[in-house]
Structures are given as C-alpha cells and as structure tokens.
Amino acid sequence: MIRLLLSTAAAALLAGCASQLQTSQTLFGLVTPYRMELVQGNVITQELLARVRPGLNRRQVRDLLGTPLLTDVFHGNRWDYVFVIERQGQQAQRRNVVLRFDGDVLASIDAGELPTEQQFVSSITREAKYPDRKLELTEEERAALPKPPARAASAAEPSGPVRPYPPLEGE
C-alpha cells in the first residue's frame, strides 16, 4: 500500500515537472531545450509590395514576389504569401499577404503591416555577445612580467642514435 502511494506521488511530481517545462520552456530557470530556428515562406517588404499593383498578370506577380506559399485548390483566384520566422529567445514574426485575381489580372492586395527592408534586416541580425578581448600587452605590462629563468648549460647531447645498428646490406 505504501509503495502504491509513493509511486503515485512520484508520478504526480514528474507530471508536474513536465507541465512546468511545457508552459515556460525552461526547467526551474536553469535548463532550456534547444529550439531549431524556423524560417518559412517568402519575405515581403514594403518596397517589394510597392512594385506590385492591381492590373498585373499572374506571371508578373510571380516574377516580383516569387511563388506563393499557399495556392488554394478551391479558391484559384487567391494567392497567399506567408512568412514565419521563429528564433529561440526572440518573439516569432509572422506576416501574411493575400492577393486576389480576377481571371489572370491582379484585382486586390490584402497585406498587414509590413517592415521596410532595413527594419527586416535589423530584426534578424544577431548581435555578438562576446566581450572585447585584449590582444596585446602594453610596454608597461611586458616590463612587469617575470623574467624567464636562465637556462643551465647542458652537456652536448648526441645528435644521432646512441646504439650502432648493423648495416642493411651484407658487406
């Protein structure tokens, strides 16, 4: 009976640790699992979308924006451009642009707030977290270093093998 209670309590504690890991993505603030960087879709910026205007045909739009990420079989006149980037330690970015066609001609553009190219580049650039390292000593620091000990005169060491070997070929 006691074993049953102890095993039930241990299972409950382990289940609590698992839910803690799922909710905050860290275990007691010490261990963070590695999360792979996720980048999907087409990057569409304000400058790129400014080149697309109603009246362009599908080929021209595809040349400017690339192949859409989603083309709905049931809505052949709708192209969805979705961009998602998820990095560990940063907020996920998600942008959607929906283009609607009337036949082969672009009829409307539905886009949320898009960044400029400069804003996008600055949002994905990682800053180095390494401190600046000192690569050279100053003359004062060199003078403060202890002098290396003087080498004692060593006896002449043999330059070749100490033991003579028999000749390789018979004489």
Task: Give a concise summary.
The chain is 29% helix and 19% strand. The chain is α+β, with helices and mostly antiparallel strands.
SSE blueprint and pairings:
Elements: H1 2-24, E1 38-41, H2 46-50, H3 58-65, E2 70-71, E3 78-86, E4 93-102, E5 105-111, H4 117-124, H5 139-144
Antiparallel strand pairs: 1-3, 2-3, 3-4, 4-5
Shape: extended
What is the CATH topology classification name of one domain? Beta-lactamase Inhibitory Protein, Chain:B, domain 1
Rounded to an integer, what's the Rg over CA atoms? 34 Å
Gap between N and C termini: 92 Å
The second-level CATH architecture of one domain is 2-Layer Sandwich
Mean pLDDT: 82
Text of the CATH class of one domain: Alpha Beta
**How many strands, which pairing sense, and closed or not: the largest β-sheet?**
5 strands, antiparallel
Give a count of the beta strands, DSSP E runs of length 2 or more: 5
Query: What letter string, H or E per element, gives the SSE order?
Result: HEHHEEEEHH
Give the uncertain stretches in residue-range form. none
Which percent range fits the helix content?
Answer: 25-40%
Q: What structural class do the secondary elements suggest? A: alpha+beta
Strand content: 15-25%
What is the count of helical runs?
Answer: 5
